[in-house]
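Methods, example record. To illustrate the input and output format used throughout this study, we show the complete record for Cobalamin import system permease protein BtuC. The sequence lines were provided to the predictor; the line carrying structure tokens was produced by it.
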Amino acid sequence: MEEASTDVKISTHATLNFFEARKMCIIFFLAFVMVAGGMVTICLGTYQISFVEVYSIIATHIFSPNIVGSLDKLKNMIVWNIRFPRVIMAITVGIGLSVAGAVYQGCFRNPLVEPYILGVSSGAAFGAALGIVYPQIFLSIQLGAFLFALLSVFLAYTLARSRGQTPVVTLVLAGIIIGSIFSAFVSIMKYLSNDTQLREIVFWMMGGFYYTQWDDVKLTVPVVLISVAIMWFFGWKLNVLSMGDEEARALGVNPEVFKFIFIVLATLVTAVCVSSVGIVAWVGLMMPHAARLIQGPDNRFVIPTAALMGGVYIIFCDTLARTLTSAEIPIGIITAIVGAPYLLYLLRSKEKEIFG
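The corresponding predicted structure is encoded as:
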């Protein structure tokens, strides 16, 4: 009997190792696709540059900056100053919004929750609109968007908190209320703006990477990657939170503390991304769904998978936005057009898997 029990344990352990190895292989494959896709998309555009030239320019800047002057000036400017920072920003935003979506869905135990549920997008939109119409108030549009995105979440969290607790339903309702108020303020800003300012507000709200520069990358990338790393490190606690507050307490996890940590980090990531590139829809809702369909419910694997899928997806959408027409299409339009049918396809695939 003891030998049989030992054999079962060994078999179970081997099975678990196999499934974990499979999940890690998927993560490494997605990382390869993201890096390769980023390199390929740098080659594409109105002015096409070969893969070898792109690699040479990037490698020269990183490993031999003293000979950058010997590079072709036009190609160097296109690759290093325009396309490369844009691709890095696209990957970062895809990673940030996807992980924020996965964390929100885990905290709220609701697969339909997305990063803008607490009024982040509306607050950021108002801050950006305020910066566009009254530029003397803020040093930059991004700063205004960032500050009001954080303010919206702070207000929602403050309104929802009662007797030392923050019920999920109350928090979501508070977020909807705050979002509606800021949406009304955005309408007021549109009314007060002139034609040029109105166009800028509309284009910012549709999202895009057209103005991305290295300064934006240096600000956004560290905040997003550090926050994502922390959320991934505590992925097992998110698994516990997904079971419910009572179960979390029974397992020794304080749900209030860790919900607060997760929500603050996810909101910080969303606010930084939105303030840099505008509103990019669907990513935070769709990528966590796709990751769970592939990897299962374990957030230790869902978070990195959603992050990498988000990076690949935004690269793909940004490439379409740049190359479909002579005039660049705002990426928010592309993510909406591509995202809705893709999510429907994923749900259909899951339905067939369940019902045969």
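Annotations derived from this record:
The domain at 1-350 is CATH 1.10.3470.10 (ABC transporter involved in vitamin B12 uptake, BtuC).
The mean pLDDT is 85.
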